[in-house]
Amino acid sequence: LGQLAEAVAHYHKALSLKPDYAEVYNNLGITLRDLGKVDEAVPCYHKAITFEPDFAEPHCNLGLALHELGNLDGAMVHHNKALSLKPDFAEVHNNLGNTLKKLGQLNEATSSYRKALNIRGDYAEAHNNLGVMLHELGKLDEAVAQYHKAHSLKPDYAEVYNNLGITLWDLGKVDEAVSSYHKAVTLKPDFAEAHNNFGEALQQLGKPDEAIARYRKALAIEPEYADAHHNLGRVLHNVGSLDEAVTHYQKALDIKPDLAGMHYNLGTAFHDLGKLDEAISSYQIALDIKPNLAEA
């Protein structure tokens, strides 16, 4: 962070000497984004574009920043402008894919990732993103192939191993999923999602104590992780730790109150504790949220 802050100071000095220096505004924006100051990065990219309208890189970076800020329509404008200026800009095709995915345009996103890879076949992030997209489209074996390609290019890419684990899980290859999640958390020990997914796979393999340890690890990293609270509640419920299960179900519902299945599981735990009024109340909330919930 110290080096980034120092870079910001140097960029401001350069701009004081040459106020219309588009490249410096672009670089300043990149550095501010790296510092987590995305809101401050956006006007820097706009300045770069003002002084040099045909400079593709700030359009690329502005599209990325707007996506992160949730302005997907604005992001699309700048992705497309960058590509009109530089059609072989692989990173922008990848970024465009991410925005299209967020907009629910899955086939168009897939096409964008493929375009990125046609330009730059060694682009590990695009292989990973294409894998995620193929998974969502139900093409699980093709997704696995993309993940393998991504980690062959970038062996320390923890997110790929997590995504591979998810797809292997859905293919019914739970032992292989466990290995993939283990690799993910080895590479990135503070990867809460991978610990949670690892726990689910271990639970499926009949290893509740190991699953509990993974869920607790996920929650130590990310205390407001609703799915991990819910999963921990389920495994504690299964091993008979009902009071603690209730605590985690309730914590999950504090974070995500509108999930019928969580209310149903809480109701079942109350039922098993003999707290029938609380059970009925939880079941009723589950039905109010999802009237066709068969279990309740």
Can you describe what's shown?
The chain is mainly α and 296 residues long. Helix content is 78%, strand content 0%. The longest helix is centred in the first third of the chain and has 16 residues, at 2-17. It is elongated and about 75 Å long. It starts with a helix and ends in a 7-residue tail after the last helix. It has helices spanning 2-17, 22-34, 38-51, 56-68, 72-85, 90-102, 106-119, 124-136, 140-153, 158-170, 174-187, 192-204, 208-221, 226-238, 242-255, 260-272, 276-289. The chain contains 17 helices and no strands.
Explain the layout of strands and helices:
Elements: H1 2-17, H2 22-34, H3 38-51, H4 56-68, H5 72-85, H6 90-102, H7 106-119, H8 124-136, H9 140-153, H10 158-170, H11 174-187, H12 192-204, H13 208-221, H14 226-238, H15 242-255, H16 260-272, H17 276-289
Shape: elongated
Poorly predicted ranges (pLDDT <50, ≥5 residues)? none
Helix content: over 70%
The strand count comes to 0
Mean model confidence by pLDDT: 96
Distance between the termini: 52 Å
Q: How would you classify the helix and strand content by structural class?
A: mainly alpha
Strand content: under 5%
Q: What pattern of helices and strands is seen along the backbone?
A: HHHHHHHHHHHHHHHHH
Quaternary form = single chain
Number of helices: 17
Biggest sheet, in brief? none
From the alpha-carbon coordinates, what is the Rg to the nearest angstrom?
23 Å
